Amino acid sequence: MVTVPEIRNEKELRGKTVGISSFGGVSYHLTKLVLESFGIFVPKDVTLRPMGQDALRLVAMSGKSIQAQGVTPDIEVLQDVPDELKTRAELQGEASMRGHLAADGAEQTGSQAYVPPSEKDDKALNAAFNLLRGVTVNAHAPASAKRPVPN
């Protein structure tokens, strides 16, 4: 979570507006999860405002229209989608939907929407558990035994 300098701890996020890329996307769910880990709940304690790309949210923070933003995940784990489901529109992301708002520049596909019915087959969930348990390490943010991990 990135905040304006005036916000020095998670309690100061109450009553503020947090920028996300879009409702229902990865940044929405991760931001909500992070806020809830602080005991802050949407929409009771904070307002989420969809604003598109990271750069737009940073500009919005400098103008104070939002006071914080969720961070785009640095790890993407794609599920193995069964062949019979690969052509379904709801699995193809927002950019493939009829009537979507066009982005400036090249269109991107958005985040994957398929979640396997069984937790044991959910690659993203299991990858997250492995990171949390220290089974695997993110090469971009290696864990440090000298640095505490916030809960």
Can you put this structure into words, describing what you see?
The chain is α/β, with parallel strands linked by helices. It has a domain at 1-74: D-Maltodextrin-Binding Protein, domain 2, CATH 3.40.190.10. The chain contains three helices and four strands, in the order ββαβαβα. The chain has helices at residues 26-37, 54-62, 123-132; strands at 2-3, 17-20, 47-50, 68-69. The chain has a four-stranded mixed beta sheet, sandwiched between helices. It is globular, with a radius of gyration of 17 Å. The two termini are 14 Å apart.
Instruction: Give the overall form.
Output: globular
Number of helices: 3
Q: Considering DSSP H and I runs of 4 or more, what fraction of the residues is helical?
A: 10-25%
Termini gap: 14 Å
The CATH topology label of the domain at 1-74 is D-Maltodextrin-Binding Protein, domain 2
CATH architecture of the domain at 1-74: 3-Layer(aba) Sandwich
Low-confidence stretches: none
Q: Tell me the series of helices and strands, N- to C-terminal.
A: EEHEHEH
Primary descriptors:
151 residues, alpha/beta, D-Maltodextrin-Binding Protein, domain 2, 4-stranded mixed beta sheet, 21% helix, 8% strand
Layout: helices, strands, pairs:
Elements: E1 2-3, E2 17-20, H1 26-37, E3 47-50, H2 54-62, E4 68-69, H3 123-132
Parallel strand pairs: 2-3, 2-4
Antiparallel strand pairs: 1-4
Précis, in short:
The chain is of the alpha/beta class. It contains three helices and four strands; from the N terminus they run ββαβαβα. It has a domain of 74 residues: Periplasmic binding protein-like II (D-Maltodextrin-Binding Protein, domain 2).
